[in-house]
């Protein structure tokens, strides 16, 4: 139905109606008259409906109260008196998105579902959670989700525990996270942006229950809320429900939630230490960030322009400012970022792989390069390419499986929160027109002059590595806790012990059947019984197999080339992974790397390169390894795309030693920054590499690749010839006709254009020889402890059930859900204090359990070891079992975009997974019973008995448990 402006519907007054062509939606701005709640509704035909309620929540300290509040409101409420309704929703709803997010100045609670009844249930639970949470009266919620003193017995040491406390310990284990913290506190010393909304572990224990409750009382009121609705829904019934059940219970009040603007502070240059492991080398581990406050959040045109400028200056392979900084020797890796979504956005230049002494060079280089650029003008080709890239992304609106409405809702808050028009960030055509015209009018040069060259409001912050820093800090905390305990009376100590034990008892006690019934859920009969069938045709084009997926793509063609990697040695594989990181950023015989980057940006939506492996669905020893060139392009530019694919795959050169050296050092620096943050991915592949060849192949692109790129960076500084020869060798061996498979997703016309143009590419491509030999991996159980300066662990244990005679079944998908949101959630997260844990079962028999940002090590392994016993006694009601099935489907049945549909087709093609097999697995999933889960206990027991273990984490914690490991190693250096 259409809503009429000035009319009132179920308590909501329609203030504005506007059609937004860019997102094909009729937008309505509404106000709930009684409570003062603001509402934005985007009406369209998208069945993936989105609801979000957000609150302006500027913090005044770094205790993390907004973040802890975000966790805690989802721990039981008035209508849903469970310990964690959020978990029950994850298990038992068909949501396509379900989460909550803390930002520096706001907290958002979005949900999405394609099922109308499910969508209403999700809204109900979330609205009750934010307005009537149990956290207001139950002190154990703050203890669990935030922090508490923990002591098992009076003679035990006193420690801190809490989910957010450990999450932020993990977050602050990365030097770039510490960098951001110091940047913001220096630039915004008197506003919300100068403190840590997520919580600083040093400050979190200062949060009291009184302050916790007061924060909710102040900010979680409809008058301070922003409600977002999106999609095809019965809007009148939706508004009736929100009004009748919730908003009508509140009166409009004044909420002082103003986000204050920081008066510019003098420019500053400062240095801070961060910890590295005792075996790490300090050389090349310094980080610098130069940050300017742009101070114009309510001008989306400026924001979009700065994203274009960031790409032009610092992200493109041809980026001139990046090149100048590298040439000046300030570091090995230079990047840039424009952070909007705050009242005073910031633009940053970051340098990694540096030394402390390079700090003084950074500002002069930036000033000189940008001053010259103002005089001579920015390269128009770079601006046009960057703007085309930005425009392509806006029009494609492909968010890798996440609902469009979710992203639109987040974008709206970038202006809405500060009193601006929420539609300004969605209606982008006028912005693009200004930016196009600005290429010829000096618009971008003016922005650089105004916001950077003549802007004294900036800070240059440096993070310097220091051995022993983490250990000293940890010891200071331990000493402080010991001194605090020593000052306590016996009754006070007994009180802490009693509270610790009471919390553990609460955590171990299941919700009552009555409480569980409060969460609405669907029936198995409501579920789609048929597995989604991605239809694709395989045909021959010039003797090349081509998989074609017909789809409506809004004039975009997805053309992906796959080259099998049979017949390569282990050493060659390292060079293949390196090639995937470097190709496309190097010179070719016809173009310099800068010219090539411009061509890619001018004529395509992007070209990506990766290496992956597809396990055979029936033979657990077999897999298909591939090198993939992934592209997207407007249909009219397919010819240009294929020319570029031909040029890059056949004519890339490795003779520019300086460029090759820069890229290798940049890749190494990136791994130094990211390794700990993605520790769960590293240890999962590493532990399974002890067992299976396909995971040995994957690990060759993870921890083993980190070791290789570290050695390559050292080699590059001396003699780069061997590396260049290795890259040239594997490139010539990969890109041959005999290895090639093509995938096209788009229209029939797109396919015919590719068919016509393909022979020109193949005519220059060697035929090559067909090979079926897989890379030889000797799978040895190493059980490694990877030592870092991090403050938490990633604990992985794995095995292979097929090697013990068991088979894969659809019920294992349900078991993943049971473990992630049942057993592991309770044992590892709730009781153990880790941020999370999960399980994966693969069709080739590999299985792995892994914790994330875990304060424990040995205790988590014990939890894994007791899993089979838990499963053998597993017993839940039919209703609870159905919820696990539903939750599993919500994870599997994500709405497919055209690119995801093409990817799924290729997965079917390479694995041999037929529609019949997929349907069988789905049938098994849908029919899963309690007895089916119990029957999996022997499978898990056998796999866990393989006793394969890999942990990445705190050096001290790993050394204290060295008897668990076969080898103790450090991060590559």
UniProtKB/TrEMBL annotation:
Organism listed in the record: Megasphaera paucivorans
Annotated Pfam families: M16C_assoc, Peptidase_M16, Peptidase_M16_C, PreP_C
SUPFAM superfamilies (alphabetical): LuxS/MPP-like metallohydrolase
Entry-linked InterPro entries: Metalloenz_LuxS/M16 (IPR011249), Pept_M16_N (IPR011765), Peptidase_M16_C (IPR007863), Peptidase_M16C_assoc (IPR013578), PreP_C (IPR055130)
Protein name: Peptidase M16C associated domain-containing protein
Domain Peptidase M16C associated, residue spans: 463-712
GO biological process entries: protein processing
GO molecular function, one term: metalloendopeptidase activity
């Amino acid at each position: 139905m259409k809503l009429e402006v000035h009319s009132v519907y179920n308590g909501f007054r329609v203030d504005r109606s506007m059609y937004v062509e860019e997102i094909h939606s009729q937008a309505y701005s509404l106000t709930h008259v009684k409570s003062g709640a603001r509402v934005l509704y985007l009406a369209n035909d998208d069945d993936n409906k989105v609801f979000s309620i957000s609150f302006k929540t500027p913090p005044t300290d770094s205790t993390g109260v907004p973040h802890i509040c975000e966790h805690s409101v989802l721990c039981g409420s008035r209508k849903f008196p469970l310990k964690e309704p959020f978990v029950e929703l994850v298990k038992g709803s068909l949501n396509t998105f379900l989460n909550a997010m803390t930002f520096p100045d706001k907290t958002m609670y979005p949900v999405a579902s394609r099922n109308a009844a499910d969508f209403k249930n999700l809204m109900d639970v979330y609205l009750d959670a934010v307005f009537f949470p149990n956290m207001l009266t139950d002190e154990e919620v703050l203890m669990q989700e935030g922090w508490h003193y923990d002591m098992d017995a009076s003679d035990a040491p006193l420690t801190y525990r809490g989910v957010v406390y450990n999450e932020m310990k993990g977050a602050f284990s990365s030097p770039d996270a510490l960098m951001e913290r110091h940047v913001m506190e220096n630039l915004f010393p008197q506003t919300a942006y100068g403190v840590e909304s997520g919580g600083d572990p040093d400050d979190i224990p200062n949060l009291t229950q009184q302050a916790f409750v007061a924060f909710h009382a102040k900010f979680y009121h409809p008058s301070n809320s922003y409600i977002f609705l999106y999609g095809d829904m019965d809007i009148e019934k939706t508004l009736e429900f929100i009004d009748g059940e919730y908003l009508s219970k509140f009166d409009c009040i004044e909420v002082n939630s103003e986000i204050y603007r920081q008066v510019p502070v003098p420019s500053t240059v400062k240095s801070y230490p961060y910890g590295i492991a005792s075996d790490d080398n300090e050389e090349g581990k310094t980080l610098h960030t130069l940050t300017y406050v742009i101070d114009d959040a309510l001008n989306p045109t400026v924001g979009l322009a700065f994203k274009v400028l960031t790409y032009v200056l610092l992200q493109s392979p041809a980026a001139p400012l990046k090149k100048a900084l590298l040439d000046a020797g300030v570091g090995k890796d230079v990047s840039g970022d424009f952070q909007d979504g705050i009242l005073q956005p910031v633009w940053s230049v970051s340098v990694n792989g540096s030394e402390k002494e390079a700090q003084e060079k950074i500002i002069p280089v930036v000033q000189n390069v940008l001053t010259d650029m103002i005089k001579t003008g920015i390269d128009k080709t770079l601006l046009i390419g960057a703007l085309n890239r930005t425009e392509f992304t806006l029009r494609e609106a492909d968010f890798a499986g996440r609902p469009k409405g979710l992203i639109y809702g987040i974008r709206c808050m970038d202006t809405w929160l500060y009193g601006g028009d929420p539609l300004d960030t969605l209606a982008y055509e006028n912005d693009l027109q200004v930016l196009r015209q600005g290429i010829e009018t000096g618009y971008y040069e003016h922005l650089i002059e105004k916001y950077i060259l003549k802007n004294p409001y900036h800070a240059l912050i440096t993070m310097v590595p220091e051995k022993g820093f983490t250990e000293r800090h940890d010891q200071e905390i331990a000493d402080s806790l010991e001194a605090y305990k020593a000052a306590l009376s016996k009754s006070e100590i007994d009180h802490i012990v009693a509270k610790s034990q009471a919390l553990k008892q609460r955590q171990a006690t299941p919700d009552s059947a009555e409480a569980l019934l409060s969460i609405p859920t669907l029936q198995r009969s409501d579920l789609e019984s048929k597995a989604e069938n991605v239809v694709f045709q395989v045909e021959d084009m010039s003797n090349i197999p081509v998989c074609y997926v017909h789809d409506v793509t809004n004039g975009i063609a997805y053309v992906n080339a796959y080259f099998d990697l049979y017949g390569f040695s282990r050493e060659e594989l390292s060079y293949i992974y390196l090639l995937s990181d470097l190709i496309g950023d190097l010179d070719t015989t016809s173009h310099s790397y800068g010219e090539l980057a411009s061509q890619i940006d001018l004529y395509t939506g992007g070209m990506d390169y990766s290496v992956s492996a597809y396990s055979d669905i029936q033979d657990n020893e077999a897999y298909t390894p591939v090198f993939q060139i992934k592209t997207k392009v407007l249909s009219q530019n397919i010819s240009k795309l294929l020319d570029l694919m031909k040029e890059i795959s056949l004519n890339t050169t490795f003779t520019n030693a300086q460029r090759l050296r820069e890229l290798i050092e940049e890749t190494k620096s990136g791994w130094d920054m990211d390794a700990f943050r993605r520790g769960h991915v590293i240890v999962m592949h590493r532990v399974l590499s002890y067992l299976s060849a396909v995971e040995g192949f994957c690990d060759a692109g993870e921890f083993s690749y980190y070791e290789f790129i570290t050695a390559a960076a050292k080699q590059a500084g001396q003699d780069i010839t061997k590396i260049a020869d290795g890259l040239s060798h594997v490139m010539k061996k990969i890109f041959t006709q005999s290895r090639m498979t093509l995938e096209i997703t788009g229209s029939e016309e797109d396919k015919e254009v590719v068919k016509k143009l393909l022979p020109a590419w193949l005519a220059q491509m060697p035929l090559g020889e067909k090979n079926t030999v897989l890379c030889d991996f000797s799978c040895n159980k190493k059980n490694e402890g990877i030592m870092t300066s991090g403050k938490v662990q990633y604990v992985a244990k794995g095995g292979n059930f097929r090697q013990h005679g068991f088979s894969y079944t659809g019920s294992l998908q349900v078991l993943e859900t049971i473990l992630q949101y049942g057993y592991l959630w309770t044992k590892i997260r709730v009781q153990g204090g880790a941020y999370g844990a999960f399980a994966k079962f693969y069709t080739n028999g590999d299985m792995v359990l892994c914790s994330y940002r875990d304060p424990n090590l040995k205790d988590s392994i014990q939890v894994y070891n007791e899993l089979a016993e838990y499963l053998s006694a597993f017993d839940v009601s039919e209703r609870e079992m159905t919820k696990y099935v539903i939750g599993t489907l919500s994870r599997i049945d994500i709405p497919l975009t055209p690119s995801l549909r093409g990817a799924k087709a290729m997965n079917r093609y390479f694995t041999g997974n037929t529609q019949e097999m997929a349907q069988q697995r789905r049938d098994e999933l849908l029919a899963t019973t309690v007895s089916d889960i119990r029957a999996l206990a022997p499978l898990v027991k056998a796999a866990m008995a393989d006793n394969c273990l890999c942990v990445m984490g705190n050096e001290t914690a790993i050394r204290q448990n060295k008897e668990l490991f076969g080898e103790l190693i450090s991060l590559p250096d």
